[in-house]
Amino acid sequence: MLTHDASTRQNARRRVVVTGIGVVSPAGIGKEAFWQAIRQGRSCAGPIRTLEPRPGQRVHIAASVDGFSINDYTDRKQARFMERVSGFAYAAAQMAMEDADLTLTPSDSERAGTSIGTFAGPIRMARGEIERIQTGGIHKMNALSCIIGSSGASFGNITVNFQLRGPGVTVYAAETAGMDALGYAYRQIKYDEADVMIAGGSEAPILHSSLILFDGLGLLSRRNDQPERACRPFDAGRDGFVLGEGAAILVLEEMQHALRRGAHVYAELAGYAATCLPANDLPAHDAPGDTSLAMRMALADAALAPDCVEFIAAHGIGTQAGDIRETLAIKQALGEHAYDVPVSSIKPIFGYTLGADGALQAASCCLALGRGLLPPTINYSQPDPMCDLDYVPNQARAASPAVILHNSLSVLGKCGALVYKRWREGDPADG
C-alpha cells in the first residue's frame, strides 16, 4: 500500500526515481531478454516474414517482435480490442508494475498517472474500423473501437485496467514521443502533480506503408542480404536505419514515496528538456544547434555541468547526415570533454522503433547504471572523419558511469534529452 502525507507536498523540485521496467522488444519479452541482447551485442534484425512484398517496396528487413500474444496478459474479451501496439504497451506496463512491486489502492490512484508516447499509434485497428463504419454503418462497438484505435488505445487500456486517476496523456511527437512521454511524467512528479507515473512508448510500425514511406525519404538501409549488419551508426559506410517494433514502460516515483515503501531504485531521472528546429532549418541536417541546446538545457535542469557526463546514450540513427549532426551537437554541448565520453546507439540491435525508441533507450540507461556495462555500437568497422568520438565499438564495455545523458531526435526537427544519475543506497533524501 502507498501512502501520501499532504503536509509533505512541496511546490519546490522533488526528486524522481525509476522503480520498475517492462520491455517488449525484438530480443524477446521482458527486461532480461532485452539486456542480454545488449550485453552480447546481438542484432535482432532479419527478413520480414509477416508481409508479402509489394510493388515499389525495396526494403525487406526489419527487427520484429516474435512470440508475443496479448492473451498472455489479459482475457480474450479485452484482447480483441487491443491492436498490436496497444498490446505491447499493456504487457510492458504490467511487467513494469510487477517489477516495481507496486499495488495501488483507490486513494493511491488519485496521485498515479499515465504518459504513453507513440509515433503512429494503432494504425491497423483505426483503419479497419473506419472501413467497417463506411460499409456497414455506425454501430456502438466498431465506433468505440475506431475512437480508441485512433486516439490513444495504449494510454486508455493502461489507465482503465490499472485504475490510474491522476494525470494522463498520449504523446504524439514523432520519433521523440517515448522520451517526451517520460519527460512529461518526470515533470508531473517533480512539480507535485503526481507521486507515481506509468510512462514510456510503444510502436508497431512494420507495415508496407511505413517501409515505402521511410525508404522514399532515403532513411532506410537497403542491405536486404545483410539484415544483422544493415544499421551502422557513426560508421562511414552507413546508409540508413532498420525499422523495429516494441515497447518499454517505466514506473517513475517521487523518491521519498519509493523509499517509504522499500522499492528497488534503478536510477534517478534528474533532468529533461525538449527543443524544436525551425522549419526553415530542417534541410540543414548538419546544423547541431537545437540538439545541443536540448542537451545543455537537460543538464541545467539536473543542476549538472557538462563535464559531469560520463556516458551518452545517442540517438545514432545510422543516416549520413543525422549522425554527423548529433556528433557535432555533442561536441558543441560538452566542448573538449566530448572526446572523453563514451557514446553508443542501440539501434543496430533493436532497430529504430520510432515512438518507442526513447523509452527503450531509457530502459537501457537504467539497466546500464545498475549493471556496470555500457551498451555497444555494433556494426562499427570504418571510422568516419566527421564522426570522431568514442562510440563503444562492437562490444559492451565495463564501466560504472555516475551520470548518463540520453538524446532523442526526429527527422522533423524535434530534439529531446534526459539525464540519469546512478542510485546508491543511502543517498541523502534532500540531495
Shape: globular
Largest sheet: 11 strands, mixed
Tally of strands: 15
Oligomer: single chain
Secondary-structure content class: alpha/beta
Which percent range describes the beta-strand content? 15-25%
Helix segment tally: 13
Low-confidence segments, ≥5 residues, pLDDT <50? 1-11, 125-134, 137-151, 281-287
What is the N-to-C succession of helices and strands?
A: EEHEEHHEHHHEHEHEHEHEHEHHEEEE
The average pLDDT value, as a whole number, equals: 87
Radius of gyration, taken over Cα atoms and rounded to an integer in Å: 21 Å
- Measured distance between first and last alpha carbons: 26 Å
Estimate the helix proportion, in percent. Answer: 25-40%
Description:
The chain is of the alpha/beta class and 431 residues long. Helices cover 32% and strands 18% of the residues. It is built from 13 helices and 15 strands. Strands 1, 2, 5, 6, 7, 8, 9, 10, 11, 14 and 15 form an 11-stranded mixed sheet that branches. A hairpin with a 4-residue loop joins β14 (403-409) and β15 (414-422). The protein is globular and about 55 Å long.
Annotation keywords:
431 residues; alpha/beta; two-stranded antiparallel ribbon; 32% helix; disordered N terminus
Describe this structure in a few short sentences.
By secondary structure, this protein is α/β, with parallel strands linked by helices.
List the helices and strands and how they pair.
Elements: E1 16-25, E2 28-29, H1 31-40, E3 46-47, E4 61-62, H2 76-79, H3 84-99, E5 112-117, H4 123-136, H5 140-150, H6 153-161, E6 168-171, H7 177-190, E7 196-203, H8 208-216, E8 246-254, H9 255-260, E9 267-276, H10 289-301, E10 311-313, H11 320-334, E11 343-344, H12 347-350, H13 357-371, E12 373-374, E13 397-398, E14 403-409, E15 414-422
Helix pairs in contact: 3-6, 4-5, 7-13, 10-11
